[in-house]
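Now for my pick.
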Amino acid sequence: MNTTKLNKWGNSQGVIIPKHLCEHVGMRIGDEVRLAVDASTGSIEISLVDAASDGKTGAAVRCG
């Protein structure tokens, strides 16, 4: 399991996704991602948007 801290970036908050996790799911700098929240579990899923398939998601990193 990996941990990271929530950081302040300007007027927003953000986390850094470790490089090895990005490589594992094929995410690269500049890729579009989709965020989904599961309120019942408090989980956040970050999914890579596959531009070649009309915005459908591909690989994902799940936190929580």
